[in-house]
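INFO batch 0412 | record 1 of 1 | parsing
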Amino acid sequence: MSSGNEIVEMDDVTRKQEQVATVASSPASPQTVGPAKADTPDQVPVGRRLAGILCAVALACAIAWGLHVRAANEAAVATRLKTPPFCQSM
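INFO prediction complete | emitting tokens
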């Protein structure tokens, strides 16, 4: 009779493990699933888009100004090197 109890208990354990496996693999309930957040152009706030555009414009201006200053400095150095040393004023 003890062998009969062991078989029944093993069947119970096997069924419980199968139930746990099916519960774990089942999709999540609707309450636990959060809303999907997609940043589509319609959902992005205007302020964030405007801030991004302003930063891009400021960066482009800074790059252009840096290139201008560098070109001006190089031109000034080039004109100083072209004049002979004895013609330079002290």
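INFO post-check: The mean pLDDT is 75.
INFO record closed
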